[in-house]
Write a structure and sequence with these properties.
Layout lengths: L15 E2 L3 E2 L18 H12 L10 E5 L3 H4 L3 E6 L4 E8 L6 E3 L23 E2 L16 E5 L5 E12 L9 E12 L1 H4 L4 E4 L7 H8 L5 E6 L7 E5 L9 E4 L8 E3 L1 E6 L2 E2 L13 E3 L6 E3 L1 H14 L4 E3 L10 E3 L15 E5 L4 E4 L5 E3 L7 E3 L1 E3 L5 E3 L7 E6 L4 E6 L2 H11 L42 E11 L8 H12 L6 E9 L2 E8 L10 H12 L11 E11 L3 H36 L24
Length: 633
Amino acid sequence: MARRLVVLLIYSVVLNFCGAFASTADDHRRPMILPLHLTSPDDARHHRRAFDGRRLQRSEPNAHMRLHDDLLANGYYTTRLWIGTPSQMFALIVDTGSTVTYVPCFDCQECGKHQDPRFQPDLSTTYQPVKCNINCNCDDKGNQCTYERRYAEQSSSSGVLGEDVISFGNESALVPQRAVFGCENMETGDLYSQRADGIMGLGRGQLSVMDQLVDKGVISDSFSLCYGGMGVGGGAMVLGGIKSPPDMVYTHSDPFRSPYYNIELKEIHVAGKALKLNPKVFDQKHGAVLDSGTTYAYFPKDAFVAFKDAIMKEIYFLKQVHGPDPNYNDICFSGAGRDVTQLSKVFPQVDMVFSKGKKFSLSPENYLFPHTKVSGAYCLGIFENGDSTTLLGGILVRNTLVTYDREDNKVGFWKTNCSELWKSLSHENAQAPAPASNDWNSSGGISPDIAPGGLPPTDLPPIDLPGEGQIGQISFDMMLNSSSSMKPNFTELSESIARGLEVKISQVHLKNYTISGPNLLIRWTIVPDESANSFTTEKAMDIILRLTRHEMQLPHNFGSYELVKLKFQRKQSWWEQNSWMVAVGVSVASVLGLLALGTWLVWRYRSQRGVSYEPVDGVAGATVAEQELQPLK
């Protein structure tokens, strides 16, 4: 994941097959790629008309999907997508700047090692290759359509196009649907080395997942993303329309300008004061573009300098320090404290101003990232772009619900707690109706052959959770493999585990560890929150799924890890928890009882020995002469 790319590299490959799937300009990833060939206004209008007659009611089912990973630790957010019958699970980077979804193919000789096993078409009974035709580029044998994507950071992806059933998980009301995706046979650069399996393209283009689902008429032409806050990670994604909050701030997005999601950014205010800039500074070239696949934000030079100076003027009392990476000239400040919730008392509020004076306020977590080497220090997450385009990455919309309303050509922003938002979405989501048949056809979906939300194939034994409120703690062994021979910082590791499992740091307990060469075997125990004496079944299953699906992401300095053992302990009954105390009490009582009995017996014995007897019919001390018995008369 490149952080600062100042050169725009554009590479476009047009793929059309059967007159239905036409690729847009080449995708872009971090930090900036924009199209060489823009969609003409006439073509764009024709493309938009195709959706006008298919607007759905908001009551139509949506795909509610969790977001995983952490923007700063991993450089991206991922979601889970299941492909094929039976389903095969993949962790895909959510990218609004890409128009193709692709995963590694089983026979890829030039693909890296990723989070999940590669896709195996032969194992899916519903897979079909997209056959070669005159409207697409074909493989060497002339049998199957191909795709190719190249990116500015010198990474690339290429492979063949296939069609299969994609599923969105048990928490989604949207039933599985057929869709076209890429099956990679080559990766280079970041795509080769990243942990995520591939890309989920949400950009404008008929090969994107959004366009394919809208074309089928199963969702409305809108989707929403909500990224977790600083140090939290995770979040939620909804494919399809949702009811907008009444105070959501909207701005126009022009689909004629580019296939990417631009907004009408007019001004930026720092501490209530507008930056002194040319009114057109954010409207140059491709305008202000939202890209979920980019980590940070990139301003044109004049805007960046003005923003940096305005921030530094407001925090003159903080000490400026060097950044965590000597290869970059990060602008960092120390002395702000470690409590993220208190940053707004130190750093100023920043406002994005749209047309008609509409404002959306940013908190410090939307333009800062924590220094990884200096406690209580933070760095600017907004950088200078070598291009005149403004690129707005994921950092700018943390803890913000962003709705991409493609039907009405607008983008909405609403500040919220994205972790809590997922819970509310889960409660609102209705159970998906069971289809009448497992067969699929061109216009409908199929029922999941295997619940995508279930545990994936793993070497760990199956887990049978007890009833509600009966899970006392969860233990797991993890094997760290690091090139460093030094013992890791267990405090930092505990914090990373707490973030990955969405629990408090106080719930993560280190039990023991064993070092063997480059490997470190660590045993951890996750205990219930202090306010509860047991896990709910839902929370326990959430923790177990995050562990077994390898969703817990650790900073790179810890190296890779492997889950070796996992078990849970039932909550003990009062009798089980206090049986040893009862046993001790009974033992003590028995001993005391025996001591009391022994004491009484001794006392009684001694009392009997001390009694004196007086002679019968005599006086004490007198001598009585013996008398012979007299004969009877």
